[in-house]
């Protein structure tokens, strides 16, 4: 069906705009009038042609946090569901999310619940749809959306801190790699050729090594690029396989330097999700099931699935997690205290904040450690290249002095 963009006015005089699929212009106008809208303008959007890059953009935690925050505000203000979706959709910058909300709006008009409509889209997290379902059943959708907004805001904040801490070392490494490639492929060969033409000298070993590397990079660049792309494809196939993903996630938790950070990130995510679900009245087994899908690590997911099976047998969560030993002792002890005191949701939220701070501190320490390490490695590489340039110069001077 063709896609139309429209502008209209509501009964209270507010201007709205949006997009909707319809059989034709008349069908769209009839649908809008049935919803008590006064149509101002309708135009058909030509589909196809240039690729809309934004359409393929995934929905980030920042976009979901903004959606939840605006939705909670509208519901709290007493605005009905359909009008709320229209308002939120008009304010959404992510085009994929906007298109989803447009389709959800049509589903709601057919009497389908919001949670059921959102579950049809794989971009929408299970946590979001399950929490909305709980809010719809309990009549606390406004408070649930508020909790979800805070959850995704904290998740986005944590992700941004990690990216900011690691962006500097990555940029420096990429820039240094580019400089080294230019030196090796463009500068050094010309310089050495001039020295050879000036006098017959035997090239030292460092110079031969760098020239050999220059020859490989210059003459086999496409082969190297093909090998790199092939390795990337094979790696993606490997990690998309269940066993490969499990092995990779296990390595992430054990790898030097980054292993501790990854474990703390997973722990913070689990604690925050579990606390939010418990505070919203989600049943315990369902909390564990959702958490296993959210933690983002196959190893921890399997552990939480086993904890869920233990919980069915009456084993406490803290005891089950502590026996397996993959999560930090701090977390398991806090869970046991929360289970004994009946304040598990509050304790989990505080524990999540603790591990968020731990992730930030550890990431900052790692960045501080990486900076001098990168400088040392770059100094060694550049020094080796300079040595490969200076040594034939000395050899030429010695040859001239001998003559």
How does the SSE layout of this entry go?
Layout: E1 3-9, E2 15-21, H1 25-34, E3 38-45, H2 53-56, H3 61-76, H4 81-91, H5 95-109, H6 114-118, H7 126-138, H8 141-198, H9 205-219, H10 221-240, H11 242-254, H12 258-279, H13 284-294, H14 298-312, H15 317-324, H16 329-341, H17 344-402
Antiparallel strand pairs: 1-2, 1-3
What does this structure look like?
- The protein is mainly alpha-helical and 403 residues long.
- Among the domains are: 1-50, Ubiquitin-like (UB roll); 258-360, Up-down Bundle (Receptor-associated Protein), CATH 1.20.81.
- It is 76% helix and 5% strand.
- The protein has 17 helices and 3 strands.
- Strands 2-1-3 form a 3-stranded antiparallel beta sheet.
- Strand 1 and strand 2 (15-21) form a beta hairpin.
- The longest helix is centred in the C-terminal third of the chain and has 59 residues, at 344-402.
- 28% of the residues are buried.
- The model is unreliable at 47-56 (pLDDT under 50).
Properties at a glance:
three-stranded antiparallel sheet, 3 strands, Ubiquitin-like (UB roll), about 5% strand, Receptor-associated Protein, about 75% helix, single chain, mainly alpha, about 400 residues
């Amino acid at each position: 069906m063709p896609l139309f963009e429209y502008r209209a006015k509501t009964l209270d005089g507010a201007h709205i705009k949006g997009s909707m699929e319809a059989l034709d212009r008349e069908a769209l106008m009839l649908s809008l009038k049935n919803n008590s809208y006064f149509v101002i303008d309708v135009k058909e959007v030509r589909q196809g042609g240039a690729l809309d890059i934004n359409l393929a953009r995934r929905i980030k935690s920042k976009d979901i946090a903004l959606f939840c925050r605006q939705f909670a505000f509208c519901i709290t203000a007493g605005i009905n569901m359909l009008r709320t979706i229209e308002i939120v959709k008009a304010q959404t910058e992510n085009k994929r999310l906007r298109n989803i909300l447009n389709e959800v709006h049509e589903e709601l008009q057919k009497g389908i619940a919001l949670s059921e409509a959102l579950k049809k889209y794989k971009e929408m997290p299970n946590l979001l749809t399950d929490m909305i379902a709980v809010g719809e059943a309990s009549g606390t959708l406004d408070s649930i959306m508020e909790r979800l907004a805070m959850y995704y805001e904290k998740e986005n904040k944590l992700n941004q801190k990690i990216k900011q801490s690691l962006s500097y070392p990555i940029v420096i490494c990429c820039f240094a790699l580019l400089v080294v490639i230019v030196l090796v492929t463009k500068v050094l060969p010309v310089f050495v050729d001039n020295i050879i033409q000036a006098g017959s000298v035997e090239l030292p070993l460092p110079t031969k090594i760098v020239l050999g590397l220059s020859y490989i990079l210059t003459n086999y660049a496409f082969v190297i690029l093909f090998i790199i792309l092939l390795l990337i494809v094979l790696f993606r196939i490997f990690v998309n396989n269940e066993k490969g993903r499990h092995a990779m996630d296990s390595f992430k938790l054990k790898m030097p330097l980054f292993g501790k950070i990854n474990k703390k990130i997973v722990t913070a995510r689990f604690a925050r999700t579990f606390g939010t679900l418990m505070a919203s009245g989600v049943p315990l087994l369902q909390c564990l099931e959702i958490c296993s899908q959210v933690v983002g690590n196959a190893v921890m997911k399997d552990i939480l699935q086993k904890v869920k099976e233990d919980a069915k047998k009456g084993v406490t969560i803290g005891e089950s997690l502590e026996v397996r030993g993959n999560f930090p002792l701090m977390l398991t002890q806090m869970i046991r205290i929360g289970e004994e005191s009946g304040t598990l949701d509050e304790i989990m939220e505080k524990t999540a904040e603790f591990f968020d701070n731990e992730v930030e501190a550890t990431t900052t320490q790692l960045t501080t450690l990486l900076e001098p390490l990168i400088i040392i490695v770059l100094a060694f590489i550049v020094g080796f290249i300079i040595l490969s340039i200076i040594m034939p110069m000395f050899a030429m001077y010695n040859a001239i002095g001998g003559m």
